[in-house]
Amino acid sequence: MTRPDLSGEEAHFRALESLYDSAPINELFDSRLEIVEAGVARIRFEVEERVYHAAGAAHGTSYFKMLDDAAFYAANSLVTDRFLLTTAFNLLLTRPLKAGPVVAEGRWVSGQRRVLVADARLIDADGEEAARGTGTFMRSRIPLSSLKGYAAQ
């Protein structure tokens, strides 16, 4: 249920944060989404050794998941009626991630009608960029209001 003291935009942001929390995949990651403002999303997460590859750093799946999510939610913060779908995502991995806190920062770049473009980057505990990515996201036929997790806290 939406809190009456939230504006339409704020209610949408909180509902998207709730949607993120409700996704079963996020039970595998110690992470928290914050929609900072329209077009900007931030995910704080912990890299744990259980996501390491054989050479002792985070596997690329962790990079992709957090970059995609940060860019996706930055874009979906601008769309209040439909769930977006990732149609393409390009990654640039620049440094290994070790155990510890990481922030994924997503920002909308362009588009608001059918296709939206957003960038994201991963910042490690030392403040260094470890990866960046750009995604394209398309409006789906799925109404946000039909998704059980899409509800303001």
Automatic annotation (TrEMBL):
Indicate the transmembrane segments per the record. none
What InterPro entries is this protein classified in?
HotDog_dom_sf, PAAI_dom, Thioestr_dom
- Family annotation (Gene3D superfamilies): Hotdog Thioesterase
Positions the record marks as coiled coil are none
GO molecular function term, any single one:
acyl-CoA hydrolase activity
Q: Residues in domain Thioesterase?
A: 56-130
- Keywords on record: Hydrolase
Write down what this protein is called: Uncharacterized protein (TIGR00369 family)
Q: Which organism is the protein's source?
A: Stakelama sediminis
